[in-house]
Specification:
about 280 residues, alpha+beta, Immunoglobulin-like, Serine Threonine Protein Phosphatase 5, Tetratricopeptide repeat, 3 domains, four-stranded antiparallel β-sheet, three-stranded mixed β-sheet, 7 strands
Length: about 280
């Protein structure tokens, strides 16, 4: 009889394990957690074949499933605890989140995956960000930094008209006329009817003409003034300088034309009396 005692003990132990739910290493029913969910795009349409990984932060054990045609997925028979869920699909941004599962009730999730941006879209967003940074820096009068930001924006997005305009305006403020002209001509190429671009270009050529006139380089000054006038004929002092340059050249008709245009725009300017005297003299010749 003594020899049968161990066999009875083993059978009893086996029965205890089975009915207690510990057999095969499974958790007890009341200690199991479940996770269910759905993967959607940004328009709330289901996404199939999404790789969903669930990592137990306590044990580092990794579980994996794929979403079905309805975008649904489920994890069952999990130990309660903290997990990291990661959803991966080609062409979409990877989405990760940390969550805690318990045995009270199944946890349900709805996850929206956004499409991965193309290189062009990323570049455009970076350009806009750099442009906005440039605007803020310019407001703070940090001109060098603002110029750098606008230059970066134009490099990232070569058709960014406003970036070229702001770059040109700031370079003009810094008396960097050649660089300003280059930026503004690019802006004009992109937006040919923008008055602000034309006005600034007119100012650049006007300033060049003033320097040439001071050096008595009349012919070269005239060329710059003609370009300035073509961009901004409404700027009165371009007409004034054209009248002056043509009178120096002895081209009476053109001098009269531009001096009269100046007086029409600026009848009460400090230069008006002198211009009237010059006109009278020219008309008597």
């Amino acid at each position: 009889m003594a020899k049968n005692i161990p066999k009875i003990s083993v059978v009893c132990l086996f029965c205890f394990l089975v009915f207690s739910g510990i057999c095969f290493g499974l958790p007890q029913e009341e200690e199991q957690a479940r996770l269910e969910g759905k993967i959607l795009d940004t328009e709330n349409k289901p996404l199939a074949e999404v790789d969903i990984q669930l990592k137990n932060l306590g044990t580092n054990k990794l579980f994996a499933v794929k979403s079905n045609k309805k975008g649904e997925f489920a994890f069952r028979m999990l130990f309660p605890g903290k997990y990291v869920l990661t959803a991966i699909k080609k062409g979409y941004k990877t989405h990760s989140l940390e969550l805690e599962l318990n045995s009270d009730s199944p946890q349900r999730l709805a996850i929206n995956l956004a499409k991965e941006l193309s290189a062009e879209e990323k570049s455009r967003l970076e350009a806009v960000s750099s442009f906005q940074k440039g605007v803020e820096l310019a407001k703070e009068d940090k001109i060098d930094e603002a110029v750098s930001a606008f230059r970066t924006a134009s490099e990232l997005k070569p058709d960014f008209t406003e970036a070229y305009i702001n770059l040109g305006l700031l370079l003009f403020r810094q008396a960097k006329d050649e660089e300003a002209e280059k930026a503004l001509l690019k802006a004009l190429e992109l937006k040919s009817e923008e008055p602000k671009i034309k006005a600034t270009l007119g100012s650049i050529y006007f300033e060049k003409a003033k320097i040439l006139l001071q050096a008595d380089k009349i012919d070269e000054a005239l060329e710059q003034l003609k370009v300035s006038y073509s961009y901004d004929p409404g700027y009165s002092y371009t007409s004034y300088l054209l009248g002056y340059a043509y009178s120096k050249k002895g081209v009476k008709e053109e001098a009269i034309k531009y001096f009269e245009a100046f007086l029409q725009m600026e009848p009460n300017s400090p230069q008006a009396p002198q211009v009237k005297e010059i006109l009278e003299s020219l008309k008597k010749q």
